[in-house]
# Entry
Amino acid sequence: MTSRGSQSHGGQVRRKAHVCAGCAELADSGPSARYARRALLRAAVFDNPVFDGREQEFWSTQRPTAPSVVTGVLTEVTPRAIVVARPEGEQFVALSPSTVTWLGAKVSPSALRPGDPVIVRRRTHRLVPGEPGHDEAAAANAANAANAAVGAAAASIAERIWARIGRVAGEILQVRGAELLVDTGQHGREPERVVIAEASLRHVQVRFPRLTPGYLIDVIGTRRGDGRLLAVTPATAQPPYLAAHPPAPPPSGGYDGGPISGSAVWHEPGDEPADLLGLGYAALDPETEGEPRSGPGAAGDPHEPCARLPYLSLGSAVRVSNDCSERAAVLPVTSCSASARQFCDRCVKCGTSPRARIADLTMAAFVELGGNLEDGCFNATLTLAG
Amino acid sequence: MDASGVLAIAREVQIPLLAVLLIGGCAAKARRALGARSIDAGIGPTGMFPFRLQRPVAIATCLSEFGLGAGLLVTAGSLGAGGPALAVRAATVLLFGTAVAVLADLRSRRPDVGCGCFGEVSSTPVDWRTITRAALLGLAAVASIGVPPLRMPGSLTRSGVVLAVTVAELALLAVLSPEIGELMVRLGRADPCELRRVPVARTLDTLWASTAWRRYQRYLISTTPTDVWREGCWRFAVFPGILSSRRVEVVFAVYMAGRHAPVRAGVIDIDTSPPSRYSSLTVYRKSTILKNKINILSNGPG
# Structure
């Protein structure tokens, strides 16, 4: 890989002033609790069971929960179970022979180390003596004082464990050997540093042949201690256009008010709580949620570069369905998604999705809906309220 | 005119038809490349070539289409009759034969990619229609081999047959072209309200002219909204107020379509606690909502 960094005269990295696909500053819109309160205020207006014949779930004030997801930091790893530290306390999760562990690749659970941030998809298992997995679950339960009350009835068994997983999607600003500087488009965030693992370089270059400034990249890997992402697998195929020149928005005639199909991707928590259930959305109302980042180079309507999505706000509720696993959940919009504005790609996890990132899910939401983080996406359908 | 005469005319029609399609394809690709400022942008099959070859392949594809289209026109008459015409038409057969193979391969290897045949309107993933169209055009090119130099139709009957054959073939190509659906969508209606950008000031004008506003205005302690947000066609505005000696928030929902848009209102106790952190749809019981009677059914939707 050649070094073709984008340098100014002073040697500083030149930041583009016209990243039209990024996200605006949302901090001046108020504290996050205000967005959460919007659900209550909305319910005050639409607390009508027959309103427009729509489903009441959109106007629910219940917090979405992720019963099958555990996020936290590993504190202990044994051959039969792991212990995950969470803000609410420690969670014991049993391992079984069918548990799939990912740490840059599929590995044995013994490769996990205390201190690794993990996200676990678990299944609740009723304890029946003699069944496979009973011993592991029983051992985990016996060690888990918090579960003592229910220990005789059920236990958590890890289905999949992802450790130190990370993802970077955005515009390449600079290339220096195998290290890239990537602008993720999120306001206030420093550019991410990505190191492409030597063994994965060819694999990544097959899907991202233009590792040059100005083009987009989306890779998945493991987070190193210094904060860099060690990229091991491409999350999608590289869009052929430059980040500053996305394709023209499709015509509005393609929008019929019904469910919207496309690709659901995931993002790292950043400043969000690790267990947050929600999604980043590409079409936040620019009148009330701030203008998308734009400038002299931004062409046309900055609404959205790829899919025509209805305007929503932080706190809006949408139903996201995983078309590959037929799981669905009603989730709040919790952030602006720069990735969904920049990438005009499809997901081919199960069939071929239309070309649009309709939801940029939090990791917990992505896993709860049945997605495998190392896949990068699943085919999804978005249903809106109203 | 007998069947052999119609068949001869059908073979003649293929030459200008193929020429127009080839030149049009090149022009659409060039337009897309200019728009994206990248010569290989959006041209699907080039993605299957090694990166260093993608740009040359994209340029070669466009140039060969233009060259063959122009060549078909130039050699259609007596000017290039014989060897040159045969060479150009045989090359056209080769081009479409290659296209069939490449599209079939593209469909299996990159099911998410469009053929890029006509630039940005060819973004629909390759399916059997696209491949069949390329095969049909290949057959048309085969049929054009050996056609004598073209001449203007000499009679009304002949002109009618030429027109009928052309229309029938274009209709068949339209059925086999996913680009037609994309073009129809692009020529479609104006933005629906969910996609329309609406200034907050216009929403407030609608609100201030509504029955709901007049009914609740006396409870408000400020006419400046404390929060405004949008969900599809609805925009919400929240105002502080006092009702029955209790501090409340009055929330209005304005439907953003037309001058006499529906407006709904609700009132909520301001002491209702928001969630401790932003994890969103949390913790509220419906009993905290003091009043929710003002659904303006007279002008509400439906």
Q: What stands out?
A: The mean pLDDT of chain A is 78. The helical segments of chain A are 32-46, 134-143, 201-207, 286-289, 338-342, 363-368. The longest helix of chain A spans residues 32-46. The CA atoms of residues 92 and 144 of chain A lie 6 Å apart.
